Amino acid sequence: MADKQTHAQNEPAAVVESPEKVVSASDNGSFVDEKRRSDSDADSVLENSEGVTEHELATLRHVRDKMPWQAFSVAAVEFAERWTYYGTTNIFNNYIRAPLPVGSRDGSVPREFRDSGIAGALGLGQQKSFAIRTFNSFFVFVTPFIGAIIADTKWGRYKTICVFTIVVFLGHIILVASATPASIAQPQTALGLLVLAIFVMAVGAGSIKSNVSPMIAEQYQGKLRKEVLPSGETVIVSPNITVQSIYLYFYMAINFGSTGAISASFLARDNGYWVAYLVPTCIFAVIPIILYLCRNSYVKTPPRGSIILETFRVVGVCLSARWTWNPLALIREVRSEGFWEPAKPSSYKGGELPAKITWDEEFVGEVQRTFSACKVFLFFPIYWLCYSQIDGNLATVAAGMTLKGTPNDLIQNLNPISIIIMIPIFERGIYPFLRSRGINFTPIKRISAGFFVAGMAMVYAAVLQFYLYKTSPCDNDQPSACETEDRHPNPSPINVWVASGPYILVGMSEIFASITSLEYAFTKAPKRMKSVVMAFSQLQTALASALNFALVDVNREEKFQWLFASFGIISSVFAGIFYWNFRELDQAEVQLNLIGTGERAGFVGEREDESSQKAA
């Protein structure tokens, strides 16, 4: 989209300079001339807007535009895909960790023991369960680069999503096969099929993920404009606020899909794991139908050249020119002002360009400015480390509490439910209220708030775990494994719903941090680099999973209290560091949203064709 330069509607001071800011003490009688120039700038029409001046942008109230129905259909695709993802992965913990209940062949709990019984199958324990689930999380957030490269070079986003939908469907079929009674009777066979299913589904889901997020926002093609409301008020219809709202509702669709895990918990407990995995597989079959019916209505992005590969080549040329094995010196070189010069065609004067230079000057500028803006994502592994605790470890915490018929892995569905409830409150109430009061709750501030709230969720979890150790009938720091002599659960008297606090707090933090990261990735990316930036932002979750692999030894129930407390402190501290480090990006918000929004004569790859023609 070419209209993201208005992303900083909350920051009028960054757009219009006051006369006081441009007049120095030595100007003497030049105040009038400087003020006239400032007024002239304020009356200039913004590029790619429909007649909106900088003064109007700074003084009129901003509202969102109508959202296209095509965006809602993409959200419906994401809803079905997330239902199938969370409807399977949310019950992985019990499936892998817990043994078969007494008298069960498929993982279900016999009716007479369902009040406190826990579904299970492979009985591999907490650490192996954590390792396999972390592998799944790591791989599903590495593979977005596969889908982004294929979409950019071969198929475009729509076809890429369609093809990898089939891949995910095959993975679901393998997953169902892994959980049949015949497979569970041979745990090594079941485990092998499970890992294969995770691999296949991760390739498909990751490749879809990097394309569906930008595709939903691309369905909106409106421009910055003025509009008179029925009340007579003139307002600015802002593409930025519209994109923000699209991503809020997109995230709501994700979390509506996440609630599919509610049925999965009961299906696994009452009917076994093969049934729990079969239902999401059937729901996933809806996705190809939606994509086919809407095929002629979508705004489709055609393949535009090997953007990701070209980006890596630009970085490679610059690094090779400044390379040193001294890491501190290398960092200084990377941050130096002339780091990007070796990749610019203009730096090769009086001779032929090297064959490896297949891009133009503007592309290097886009890479440079995009990397500069997207440094914010490098902090996100700390945030996703906190999030990962609600993805399994807190379900283990809940397994040691009084259930009263509630499956222990059901409680984690409070996270998407709380998000579904809070998103309309923020989108229709809190954010408009802040804008009307002139409060600039910009992306950097929102992400900082998300880090802090996630830290508070971990502090809550640490305190809960302390009291769980204290009240468990078993004195072994493993409340989830506490059993009576006849092998039935013997939980702490603390009710499982007390564990709702971290899930709700993390949900609020996702509205601040995770949703804003999607919005930030889309609005800060040039038109032809959106897949690059989106894939890079999602890579941070994979990096968090890699860090989690290093923490396998401390992901034991007896160490949960200190694990949660450490994450809580680190995330809260990083909230302050993040804002301090990137506070200047708030002031440069308008300029960052102008990156790559202008019309281009061509895309990457056209220079190569021109060079070939010249050679001929």
Automatic annotation (TrEMBL):
Record-level Gene Ontology MF annotations: dipeptide transmembrane transporter activity
Mode of membrane association: Multi-pass membrane protein
Stretches that traverse the bilayer: 130-151, 163-184, 190-208, 246-268, 274-294, 447-469, 496-520, 532-551, 563-582
Chief site of localization: membrane
SUPFAM superfamilies xref list: MFS general substrate transporter
GO CC annotation, single: plasma membrane
Segments for region (Disordered): 1-50
InterPro entries, per database record: MFS_trans_sf, POT_fam
Protein name: Peptide/h+ symporter protein
Membership in a protein family: Belongs to the major facilitator superfamily. Proton-dependent oligopeptide transporter (POT/PTR) (TC 2.A.17) family.
Entry keyword annotation includes Ligase: no
Sorted UniProt keywords: Membrane, Transmembrane, Transmembrane helix, Transport
Protein location: Membrane
